[in-house]
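Ticket #4471: structure export looks truncated?
Reporter: QA, pipeline team
Priority: medium

Steps to reproduce: submit the single chain below to the structure queue and open the exported record.
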Amino acid sequence: MFNKDRWTEIIEALNANKVRTFLTAFGVFWGITILVLLLALTNGLRAGVTADFGNFATNSMFMWGQRSSISYKGLPKGRRLEYKVSDIEAIKAEIPELKYVSPRNSLGGYNGANNVTRNTKTGAFQIYGDYPEFIKQKPMDILEGRFLSYSDINAKRKVCVIGPDVVKGLYDKDEEVMGSYIKINGVNFLVVGTFKITNSQGDTEEEANTVFIPFTTFNQAFNYGDRVGWMAITAEDKTSITQVKERVFDIVKSRHNIAPADQRAIGHRDIAEQFQRINGLFDILSIVGYFVGALILMSGIIGISNIMLIVVKERTKEIGVRRALGATPWAIKGQILQESLILTILSGMVGISFSALVIWIMNSILDAGGPVENFSNPSVSMQVVFVALTILVISGVLAGLIPANSATKMKPVDALRIE
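Actual output as written to the record:
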């Protein structure tokens, strides 16, 4: 165990050659610093990239119709798959594991331009017909007013919720937006809310140029009948959308006479699958961080082991005297191991403290300068700190083990004869 005399002895041994001690300790310091910073930067990248998902329903997918690639039941390939409102009810009825099945339609973009006017101002904006639950599937903040409601859906009200760039394009500064009217393809709509995209999974500029109107109103006003352009589908929390999406595809294929083996007729984007891939990528980066940091740390441990071998050689006569006076091999081993352990832990703790300071500075800069794309809140958990401390303890023991064994192999008489 450590006592005052042992502490004094260890400090004197480390102070005997300060430059050598510093350079040896620096290897461990640098290794543990690189390890912690690599993991912090990986977590910062993970937080920044996954922040794009934000409140987005990561257990969701978007599904749209494409052209069939296989002839089926006498029908030729190349047919365009067009969804119907009845498909929505069929999917909901047959797959109870789904939380939301939201039909969508749109105008604008490649389909047209200059389709929204207000007084003398005109703008080309994206028009979406949606259901109220879409706000739970796509992240957005309501700045004024409200989003769409089921009373709007049932009554087919001509109301709309508009994005920030629509406000800029159609309204003067400080002009009242709520309660005003805009005209979409000649149809008047009352503005009941404004929104801002919080975390985007698409084109942020296009989403800011968006107008949401009730789905039923959209189909009636623009003569879409019972057509559905595409769907936003979200599974229940305990069910992965990736696991049930094939059942959704089978229902749609059956209802529209699409060959079961046709993989091209239905286009989709599985957000849950993308989210898992991103998490998997950063898990790999974390492993790489541990591996690279461990290699650098190992070089520092090898340096400590080499230095302790030199120290043992310099103190051979002292060790011989101690053995002659009755010191046991384990007492000699314990002394060398303790010196190695103290040097390793002290330099490692300084490295962890330095890493914490660097991480704090990075977060302060991010807080002061605003968000950085794909990077935020670099940090490490207490679990990482615990792992680092465990590595330090094990490394300290390993670094001193070879020198300690070397110190006890020589007989006391031979040690005393060495000049």
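Status: closed, not a bug. The export was complete when the record was re-opened. Leaving a note from the reviewer for reference: The mean pLDDT is 81.
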